[in-house]
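Entry 14. Two folds queued back to back today. First construct below, sequence then structure tokens.
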Amino acid sequence: MTIANYISSVSLVSFLKQVSFCTLFFLINQNISAQTKLDSLINVAHLKVYEDPMSAIKMGEQIFNEASIAKTKINALMLISNGYLSKREYEKSLEYSLKTREFFDEIDDPKVKISVLNNIGMQHQQLLIYDKAIENLDEALKWAEKVTHKDSIASILGTNYAIRGFIYREQMSCDIALNYFNKSISEFKKALKVKKTMNANLSILNYNKGNCELQVSQIDSARVNFNKSIKYAKVINANSLYAFAKKGLSEVYTIEGNYNQAINELNEALKVSDSVGDLVLDQGIYKNLSDNYLAINNQAQYQLYFGKYSKTQKQIRKKERSTINSSITSLLEETKLQINQKKKELQKLQIVLLILIVFSLLFLSNRIIKSRKNYKKALKNLEKFKK
């Protein structure tokens, strides 16, 4: 090979390396760009969870199929889970929430782990399996302790406190729940500076605060919080949250004996609830309308809305029976997974013990063989000595 040919071949190799590097760099950046786009889509989809849950679910499925990293897949699954939760399809919601566990060990980011555990805790809370819910929420807080800058996890801490508030409201009292709702609101307000979606969470929390305050006869405080809930819902055009808050405000007027104003608020809620398709919301509006029409002795309207309330109640009960069956199945599957995991761990231990036993036997066999050789050698030496 001539010097010129050698230089030419080196240049070609160098050129090919540069091309390969540039191609690799382009593909990596293309992948990062794709992931960034998917993460942005998740943020957009979260805004649709309460307003158009089916759209959010479809976007979540698309993101999950296109994602190449575990973190994005988990976020997509949680988005789908929240979409079904918004539709009150608890069976589907729990199914997608539990799927996130499949990718749990593939991620190092404690923030994502906290979100996963919060989400699973929330599903169990919805199904009234409170011990499992608290177990997951406690594990989430253990991961939260590893995060140095707590402001960076304000939204997920807010979620953790909110779910605890819902649980303690049912298990203990509204006074204890209000403490957790206030802690949750404080965290969500920190996150609101960078996340518009926090308006939805703040609407939900203020609505639930208002409900608790009605139970402990803090009427004026309840009115304030229902109005706050309406304000936050309007920011993101969340019809379901707006309707729930209006329903809550109507209850304040009913307690005060202002039945006509209560009916006005409920009619406002009814205008937007049709586009939501939430049976629990519809049931609450119909029940309150029937009660208020009865209070002003409007029998025709009372009969109309009481009939709608009864029909919706039957639909909800049918759905609840299906959900209970699903939750039992899910618990059995979860227990089966835990048993299989224990079996795998036991199998590993058995393999290790077997290896140790084999090595021990080989070692002992070797020692016995050497001892026999030494014994025979000693006998020969002894015979020689006798001769």
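Second construct, same run, same settings:
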Amino acid sequence: MPPAAPTPPPPGAASPPLGRLLENTADAVQAVRGGQSLTDVLACCPPDLRPGVQALSFHTLRWLGSATEARALLAPKLPPPAVDALLVTALALLWPTGAGQDPPPYAEHTLVDQAVSAARVRTPAAAAFINAVLRRFLRERDALVAGAQRSALGAYNHPLWWVERVKRDWPQHWQALLAGANRRPPMTLRVNARRGTGEAYVHGLAALGRAATLAEDPPGTTLGAGQTVVLAQPCPVYQLPGFAEGEVSVQDAAAQRAAALLLQPIDGEDRATQPWLRPKARVLDACAAPGGKTAHLLELAELELLALDSDPLRLARVQDNLNRLKLQAELKAGDGRFPKGWWDGRPFDAILLDAPCTASGIVRRHPDVRWLRRQDDIQALARIQAELLDALWPLLAPGGRLLYATCSIFPAEGRLQIDAFLQRLPPGTAVLEPASPGHLLPLPDNAPGAIAMRPAALQDGFFYALLRKTPGS
């Protein structure tokens, strides 16, 4: 779940000193290494420091593998955790980045000076050590960078098991996928179809001197087309015109595909620009938090929608989103695997199952994920996904549709999961619609096989499978 939206700074507020930002960024890196999500860490960060700490933490976590290997070359004896966290933070922020990636955010000597100042506050005895290590890095940078990149960790900035898994799953694309995870993603918006069009919103931004483009819709999109806007430069949500009034939401283009896939008619059906469902049809969003896809469904159709989530606290985020957008749904806390605890017995016309997953497709937006995940998480999450599919399919009315989605690039959570599910069902009771996108890989347009793999360089990695329950089954 992304951090809470930033609040506007007080008028005339000064930027926090870099030394304080480095102190708190090192704390965040140490917490992530200890298994805590960056979202939780940032929630506890002082509000005036949070935007800066988030930006520095994102950069550091994208280059943490390289920085860790360089630190090992510079100081083979592992320093105490707090010292090591500050050291790798500074090294990551000094690391030379490639084309299409964020440059180091501060001048070299400014960063070294402020890292030493931060050390004097947090680890005074290590200030001279940190100063010496960082200055040596600047003197010997080319050799140290080359040495660090001899290992998979230093070269790809992902754990070794992750690198091997991506290499096995996507032998043609693994290097591009790993490199793409270290690029800063675009800020993509979804214009509320009840309030306006993407084209009008782009023109409104241009009038304010803000550059943005209308994203190209996926082939075959008929419902909710022309609503995706990509900003030239990210900004806090409070700077988005109409955000507080519900005119626009922040949502990646790949995530925006869910609502149209579930609701729009399939080739050969009538009313191509209208939902295939009757008005007030019963729809279940089975893992709804934080509510972006819930809201999008309601923006596109008049539905009797149940938003379900197992976490009551995260369910509150769904309600916040609906309130801002002036939309209504029934919200329930419950686990989709155990319908007896929340289902009223009436079948659903459509189900969206945006299942819990490794989030391996959105690592560029959540760079801590790669360091938090463990290899056995894939199997554990795949088991939960299978249990959700098995439990929710009987709740779907004959002729209804279930859209299975994960923000993962691992086939075990996508294609292989759906193949196994269809094998478990009685023959002839389910159809995998040809409109199903399958795996969407965040590859550059010129990557080998890019067109065949249906990638989108501006989109996150996702998997979608649209299943239809045959009438009479």
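Quick look at the second one. DSSP finds 18 helices and twelve strands in the chain. The CA atoms of residues 127 and 451 lie 52 Å apart.
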